[in-house]
């Protein structure tokens, strides 16, 4: 994972444990997110994932437990701008993101390049068209 520091105080992505899937990413600035609002939090870094991969920004469970979650979050392999995290505050009070704190996870994932093929039917499956809670 190639990482470029864009801000002097930017911290590189880090794993707490070698077996962790995601890399913690950090805020460079203090940002206040209003109640029931979404805010942009800069990280001060740009990333280029390995060939055949993209990056997914995921929520940190410790923030999600407080009602603050990362939204959006796909970083295409050809994007070279600053990684900015959209955090949504679902609480009824403002949330302050302090500078230099872990705000999200950066998860590298492989992807495929399928061709789109129009078909007249998708065929039968066990599940069929049952969705949204149909499995219990």
From TrEMBL:
Biochemical pathway: Pyrimidine metabolism; dUMP biosynthesis; dUMP from dCTP (dUTP route): step 2/2
Reactions that this protein is recorded to catalyse: dUTP + H2O = dUMP + diphosphate + H(+)
dUTPase-like domain span: 11-136
Single GO BP term: dUTP catabolic process
Coiled coil: none
InterPro entries (alphabetical): dUTPase, dUTPase-like, dUTPase-like_sf, dUTPase_trimeric
A Pfam entry, by short name: dUTPase
Gene3D superfamilies, per the entry: 2.70.40.10
Required co-factors: Mg(2+)
Top enzyme category: hydrolase
Record has Magnesium as a keyword: yes
The keyword Hydrolase is assigned to this record: yes
Known role: Involved in nucleotide metabolism via production of dUMP, the immediate precursor of thymidine nucleotides, and decreases the intracellular concentration of dUTP so that uracil cannot be incorporated into DNA.
Assembly, per entry: Homotrimer.
The family this protein is said to belong to: Belongs to the dUTPase family.
NCBIfam families tied to this protein: dut (TIGR00576)
Name of the protein in its database record: Deoxyuridine 5'-triphosphate nucleotidohydrolase
């Amino acid at each position: 994972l190639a990482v470029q520091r864009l801000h002097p105080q930017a911290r590189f992505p880090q794993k707490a444990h070698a077996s962790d899937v995601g890399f913690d990413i950090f805020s460079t600035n203090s940002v206040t997110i209003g109640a029931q609002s979404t805010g942009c939090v800069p990280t001060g870094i740009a990333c280029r994932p390995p060939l055949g991969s993209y990056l997914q920004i995921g929520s940190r469970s410790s923030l999600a437990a407080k009602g603050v979650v990362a939204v959006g979050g796909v970083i295409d392999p050809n994007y070279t701008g600053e990684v900015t995290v959209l955090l949504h505050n679902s609480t009824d009070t403002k949330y302050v993101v302090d500078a230099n704190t872990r705000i999200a996870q950066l998860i590298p994932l492989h992807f495929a390049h399928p061709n789109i093929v129009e078909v007249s039917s998708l065929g039968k499956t066990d599940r069929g068209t049952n969705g949204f809670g149909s499995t219990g």
